[in-house]
Amino acid sequence: MVLRYFLLFALLFSKSIVAQTSNENFNSQIQKMKKLMLSEDYVEFSNFVHPKVKEMAGGKKQLIEITKNTFLKMKQEGFYLLDINYSDPSEFIYFNNEIQITIVEELLLQTPKAKILGKYMLIGISNDNGNNWTFINTSGKSSDDIKKFFPNLSPKIQFKPSSKEIAK
Predict the structure, then answer these.
(1) What is the pLDDT of residue 19?
(2) How far is the C-alpha of 51 from the C-alpha of 79, rounded, in Å?
(3) Taking CA 53 as the corner, what is the angle to CA 50 and CA 57, rounded to the nearest 5 degrees?
(4) From CA 21, how far away is CA 15, in angstroms rounded?
(5) pLDDT per position as a tens digit, 23-81
(6) Which domain does 67 fall in, by range?
(7) How far is 17 from 30, CA to CA, in rounded Å?
(8) Which of 3, 41, 104, 106 could disulfide-pair with 88, CB 3.0 to 4.6 Å?
(9) How many domains does the structure of the chain reveal?
């Protein structure tokens, strides 16, 4: 049960950064995205979700509803998002008129039994030379699936495995 909610949460969302990159817009926007998620402003948060992810959810309104309902159900069952951090940003990759970057997203979740730290790879994408960024969370999906759903990704992207551990 814990794993199901954690994976659903991780599949739907992307968040923020502690690790700095050379792109100030990226740094600023990922911090803003983190604050929006932690403050439960799912409407504004959805602006940082990659358009293809929104499409796969049935559109922006549906994504917002899924997000709200997921967090409501999680809370009802004793699961709370405590913090979000980022580490290990890759180099920026310029490919097919986009800038792409990967970064590890660290989600700290309180469950009824313990705190869990999940680490997932996010892919940041800008199609306007780094001015605006949207994100794809890759957790729960194989690199082949991600490449199938997002064929415009650079072959230079190195996929990092997801992990979960009891937080100390």
Answers:
(1) 59
(2) 28
(3) 140
(4) 15
(5) 899 999 999 999 999 999 999 999 999 999 999 999 999 999 999 999 999 999 999 99
(6) 2-166
(7) 6
(8) 104
(9) 1
